[in-house]
Amino acid sequence: EAAQGWLARAFECDTANPQWLFERAQVFDQMGRRGEALQLYRQISDGTWAQGLQGYVERARAEMRGR
Prior knowledge:
The chain is an all-alpha fold. It has four helices and no strands.
C-alpha cells in the first residue's frame, strides 16, 4: 500500500512521465486490485507522452489485453 502511495506522489511531481502510472498499476496488480490497475493502464494508453516514453503506452495496452 505504501508503494502505490509513493508512486502516486511521484506522478504528481512528474506528470509528463507515464512510468509512475505504469509502476503503480503493476503494484495494484500485485495487490489483486485489477480494476484500479486497468484505470491506470487506460490513462497511460489515452495520454500524450514524449516520443521516448511511448514504450509505456504499448506495455499498458498489452496489460489491458491480458499480457
